[in-house]
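Appendix B. Raw example, untouched.
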Amino acid sequence: MKPYSLLIAVISCGFSAAALAHDPVFGLGPHVLFKGGYEVSPEIHLSKAGSNRESELGVELTYGLTGDWAAGVELPYVHESSAAGSDTGQGDVTLFTKYRFWRKDSPGLQQSMTIAFKLKTDSGDNSIGAGTTDRIVGIAYGYEGRTWYRWAALRYRDNNTNQNGLQRGNKTLLDLVGGYRPHRTGYLEADTVWLLELNGEFGQRAEQNNVKLANTGGEQWFVSPGIFWTKRNFAIKAGVQIPLASNLNGNQAETDYRARLIFEWHL
């Protein structure tokens, strides 16, 4: 191979890797930052369940510790409303890290797996925060090609007990996601990937002073269409979670919808 041909091939591989760095909207993905990189991500979350509504405006800041290890912080500001009234204030700050322990590259394809850990601190306003320090651990797999994408993730949320003796039920989250790029584009061109997620949530019953509460916990499934649009180091992700099936315990308001809009900027 001629020297200039080899150079072009190396550059193309680098551009492909950058273009392949996608994650689902609602599920956990395997994407990590490059070493020394920064990611700034303003986000908007909306949800409604019966008369309960929540809107969240936040920002996620991420730093690439190495090419396989990233860490960051989530800073949310939340507005909640229900038939009983409304509250607005600072939500609980969350610290997170993600480590990619396996990666396999082939022409036009990257496969990878990561483990992730989140620590939701008890730092929000009294009327907004959960009043507990909770932990989330997860594992994610990604198959990211030039046309088709596949992701799968499993997470477990371990909720603590607040000062009133209430422990919200722990929760298991399962995400299966497919993605499709209708037009193959180069690194300098705008790129669009359409997403379809299947999100399952399995919640245990909450407990008050070691007594299980009837109207808590259960199972929910969502189908979530979305889009991932990128141009070089800027991206927009958006999606809507639509209830597919629900088996909640007792008398609980079922989710009407959840929506998420994310702007990503890599520096």
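End of appendix B.
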